[in-house]
Structures are given as structure tokens and as C-alpha cells.
Amino acid sequence: MRGCQLTFYTQQNHRHGHQPVADWIMGEVRQLGIRGATLFTGTEGIDHVGKRHAARFFELAEQPIEIVLAITDDEAERLLDVIRAEHVRVFYTRFPIEFGTLGDG
């Protein structure tokens, strides 16, 4: 199949309403019936203004988080439309990919 890899970058303490942005996005992914999202937590990152964010022993609030999806272009547009409609501020990248499943079962 052809589609795109859509990746969102946020951190643990960024919120939309009462929940972290990453949790909110994952919930929207489920509601839209999109399959194949993976959430990664990082140990350190540098944001768009050069500020360092890191997961520390006693404080995980600034822990970098990445959500990666391999999805169709239509699915990507539906998800981005929801995020835009909710006015969620989140950085993302999107680029074309080919994806599929190999093997039996």
C-alpha cells in the first residue's frame, strides 16, 4: 500500500483539556478506527526554540514523546482535520511511504 508516515512530537506535560496531548491523539486515533499507531517516549530532546527537554529521575513532565503512524493519506487527513478543529498545538512531520505486511498469519 501507499500512504504516509505521520509523526507527532510533544512532551509529557503538554495538555489538551484535562489530558496529555499524546493520550488525546491516541484516543482520537482509536475513535477514527486507525490501526498501527506507536507511542515512543524519549529521554531527551531539543524543541523549536532550542530548549532542552529531558526525562529526569524525579520529574518526567518534560519527557519527549513521539507518536508514529503508517497510514493512508485519507486517514492522515481525517486525523489532521480533527486536530485542527480542536486547535491542538502540536508539531508533526508527514512523508510518503510504502507499507504492508509480510509472512503468514
From TrEMBL:
Known Gene3D superfamilies for this protein? 3.30.70.120
Q: Which domain of life is it from?
A: Bacteria
What is an example of a Pfam family matching this protein?
Answer: DUF190
Family stated for the protein in its record: Belongs to the UPF0166 family.
Give the protein name, as stated in the record: Uncharacterized protein
Source species, please?
A: Pandoraea eparura
